[in-house]
Amino acid sequence: MTVASDDHEILVDCASSGIAFDGLRVDETDETYSLETPENEWTGLEKDELEQALESCEEYVTNWRYWQKTVGGEGTSRREFLRWCERAPLDDANTKTPRDGALDDGNTGERAVEEPLAVPERYDALRDGIDRQWGQLSITTRFLDVDESNGARVYDLWHVADANSDLVDLEVHDDPRDAREIATYDEDGRYRPLKTAPSLASGWAFTGLSGDELVETVGFFYPATVANWHRELSGNLDVDHWLETAERQTGIYDVVDELPREAVAWLAEACCDDSQCLRRREWEYDEDDDLGVDGGDGQFPCREPCSLVIAAARRWAILESETERTYQLELTTSELNQLEELIDAVAEGRTDEIREADVTDGANRYRARYLRAKRFDEDGTLDATQVDD
Amino acid sequence: MQALVIAAHGSHLNPDASDPTYAHADTIRETGAFDEVREAFWKEEPHFRDVIRTLESDEVFVVPLFISEGYFTEQVIPRELRLEQWDPNKWASDGTSASQATLEAGDVGKTIHYCGPVGTHDAMTDVIVQRAETATEDPDVGEGFGLAVVGHGTERNENSAKAIEYHTERIRERDRFDEVKALFMDEEPEVDDVTEYFESQDVVVVPLFIADGYHTQEDIPEDMGLTEDYRRGWDVPAAVDGHRIWYTGAVGTEGLMADVLLERAADAGAGIGEAREAVRELAGSPAKAVAESTSRTGTGD
Ligand code: SF4
């Protein structure tokens, strides 16, 4: 395996202004060069000696070439994300973020213990492929050409549920834009207005993407997650809390700031739970007013209430303005329990799983129809009497 | 580096609402005129709030894929993009003449050229005419034909009627169609009585809406009497009161809309090279567009 000589030339050209990247150092002083890797050190090299010496650390050279020449974009979220994908040290990871703190507490599983890899370890791993999980996406970074590697990486992407599937069983894509269509519908063909809902359909794969294409594809699956993740990593995620966002609304959404604080907590519990959304809610009621509801364990932060939550909040703001009343209705204890089971089954999206003949489940369809037949009047309403005025 | 952001409404309920946005964005991507092209939405993702930070370009051209100047273009989009120095007076518009304003987005330190909506650009007139061509599958349509440009009406936004009337007048001046009329859903003259406003036997009806949805695919065809039930679809042309009505839904799905987006950005200073020619090439085939729109109408969705 030899490094293409143009890699050397480009590198020598750059050496005059100094190179320090991923463990590789090259400096020029008075037309002699020094070269350093974590394993070796050379000084006082003539130009041709430098080129020779570079041959013994070609992993560092091709790595430098890939990141500095192919990927480029220093300081961009695109670059940081691609580095994260192969577990390279991140430029911005020095800044301690609250997230890093959370990583140490062991609640977040594997990700917490993954140390960045140095070049030789990474090169070893890239031969087999390095896997990362981003929401419901599984991303593999590997060498374009394992036998004759010049450091060029390519990326494969599929649903985490398909991690063990054969490629032949998946629908293979190479155009990032195809992700838009895949992300639009869930397994049952229903529209997914919230892209970070954990309902991404499986059965597809993107293979051999370039770094730019990977970031674009991830952007179609989970828009803006990479940008906000990167902001969080660099310690400048700008969170807009509930009140700020609600007060900004105009038109028909003007009412959402009237939602009582307590109801905002219920809203967060209802909508921003991991079972409903893979974003980790970072917004609270107000800067110093914690909602007291868990924001979830997602990898990418949610920096402000989304449009779906605002739309739902508008409905709740209207509903919450109603006065509470006391009603009297006749139910057996089991029927009361059944109401609880029904609400729970709908809230958990469990109704489809209840077997037709499983009449022990209160949310079973026959049980629900029976309750309706027994307790509803001719108008289809619950036979309840208001007892206050 | 320069980026184009197409700012559209989108929908929480209807996945097709964003189709035209994606289609036009893809057409412009093909031209390579911008380093980055990004769709952004009020009701979908990426949301207006997040879109600018996903870009690497320092120069960003934002074009609202909306029909008229009003609530969304003057309040919602600039506010959500954090264009803090925005003031509708910067467009110095009478309701149909918005051009652009150069501002900075508060969260990113990038230059944002905030453009007027596609619907009020002069090039939109050509799109309406092209819609008539695709509806009739006749690139020379005009003689013996009436053209109705249909808008929502004044109920929600007074500028919406202005945009309709503006293009109606411009098409009328071209003397191409025997008659050109502006009709509305919520005000007089109403689209329900379309046949009463035309002497021509053949009338092309072009709704000035961005995306197909409830109004263009349910309301308008039923109100005009093209069909009893939109779910059963309708013929193009359909016979109504001794007239033939040529109707194929929202003008915003017309391929040439990509050209209007490009022109908006070019007017604001974007370098677009030969992209307009490329887009006209890509979007120029009426027959192809008709095939697409009739299949959509046929399923009645
Ligand atoms: S507001 Fe809640 S539901 Fe919406 S994106 Fe954020 S975490 Fe998810």
The number of domains of chain A: 4
Q: Tell me, what is the CATH class of the largest domain in chain A?
A: Alpha Beta
**Computed Rg of chain B:** 19 Å
Mean pLDDT of chain A: 91
Main pleated-sheet profile of chain A: 5 strands, mixed
Percent of residues in helices of chain B comes to: 25-40%
Uncertain residue ranges of chain B = 287-301
Spatial extent as radius of gyration of chain A:
28 Å
User: What is the third-level CATH name, the topology of the largest domain in chain B?
Assistant: Rossmann fold
Low-confidence stretches of chain A: 95-113
Shape of chain B: globular
Largest interface: A-B, 31 and 25 residues
Structural class of chain A: alpha+beta
Give me the CATH architecture of the largest domain in chain B, please.
3-Layer(aba) Sandwich
Give the strand tally of chain A: 13
The CATH topology of the largest domain in chain A: Gyrase A, domain 2
For this entry, what is the oligomeric state of its chains? heterodimer
Give the end-to-end Cα distance of chain B, rounded to a whole number of Å.
40 Å
Domain DUF7348 (chain A): 5-72
Organism (chain A): Natrinema halophilum
Protein name (chain A): DR2241 stabilising domain-containing protein
Domain DR2241 4Fe-4S iron-sulfur cluster binding (chain A): 235-315
